[in-house]
Specification:
The protein is an alpha/beta fold. The chain contains seven helices and nine strands; from the N terminus they run αβαβαββββαβαβαβα. The protein is globular, with a radius of gyration of 15 Å. It is an enzyme of class 3 (hydrolase).
Length: 193
């Protein structure tokens, strides 16, 4: 197998959320198989607080290690990476992370769209994008791009979301592959091949 073929076969999952997404995210992570052979990247809107315990919170009950993504870090399979507060997280062609402190997008840094758009360009059809609860429309454009590049898309059901604006925004601009309750999303990740 050529090196380029191997790169094309590499898979990734990106999960974005904002207000009301911690509870569904904890449920999803707790149900992930320890044998996942791709990285999972989480982008949450959060305050820039050095005392944040988000990484510790997400590690509880997750069979995979959870860590904050670092600049120039190469993604590894079976690890959940969390976008650090106050930085946009991009995925480079060599499957490394890049942190960017440019302007906020839709009042947010990290921006879900920024990560989703960069991931779509790198992983194309081998990407699964998931959009959870939130109060604005960040993530909708990026999730649509994932779908247009051949990837799979999941939106948390607005009826099941604490803050339905974000899932509704995505549903209003394109037809996601799945609209699911938070309790059903982990099964899609575990089956992603």
């Amino acid at each position: 197998m050529e090196k380029d073929d191997l790169k094309k076969a590499t898979k990734c999952v990106v999960i974005g959320g904002s207000a009301g997404s911690i509870k569904p995210l904890l449920q999803i992570l707790s149900k992930l198989k320890a044998s996942l052979d791709f990285p999972v990247i989480v982008i949450l809107h959060r305050k820039n607080d050095p005392r944040s315990s988000l990484e510790t919170l997400l590690n509880n009950g997750c069979a995979l290690p959870v860590k904050e993504g670092e600049d120039k870090e190469t993604l590894k399979n079976g690890i959940v990476y969390v976008a650090p507060s106050d930085y946009h997280l991009l995925i480079e062609n060599d499957h490394s992370l890049s942190l960017d402190a440019s302007e906020k997008v839709l009042w947010s840094r990290p921006s879900i769209d920024v990560t989703f758009l960069s991931a779509a360009e790198v992983y194309k059809k081998n990407l699964l994008g998931i959009l959870l609860s939130g109060a604005n429309n960040d993530g909708s454009v990026g999730l649509e791009r994932i779908k247009n590049m051949g990837g799979k898309t999941v939106v948390q059901s607005p009826d099941n979301a604490e803050m339905p604006a974000m899932p509704l925004s995505a549903i209003n601009i394109f037809k996601p592959d799945y609209v699911l309750k938070d309790s059903e999303i982990a099964a899609v990740i575990n089956r992603f091949k």
